[in-house]
Amino acid sequence: MRSRMKARHVSFKQALNDVIREGASGSEGHSFVTPSRAMGLKIDMTKANLIAAMLEDEELIRKMAADS
Q1: For residues 34-47, average pLDDT
Q2: Cys staple from 14: which of 10, 20, 27, 63, with CB 3.0 to 4.6 Å?
Q3: Is 20 inside any structural domain?
Q4: Is 8 part of a structural domain of the chain?
Q5: How far apart are CA 32 and CA 10, in angstroms?
Q6: Which domain holds residue 10?
Q7: pLDDT at position 8, please?
Q8: In-domain check, residue 45
Q9: In the prediction, which pLDDT does 41 show?
């Protein structure tokens, strides 16, 4: 980006905005694709918040018992 700034004699802010606009418009004709990968272990995350809350409660109870 720095070479673009020097070549075009524009500020960093203007160069950054130009690059963002170019990317958003898709003017270069190719899109960025993020490859997906299998993570191996499959975990049902539907109860994740409940489990996290239960573990937090257990830790809080343990700390309160240790303080008294």
Answers
A1: 82
A2: 10
A3: yes
A4: yes
A5: 27
A6: 1-26
A7: 77
A8: no
A9: 77
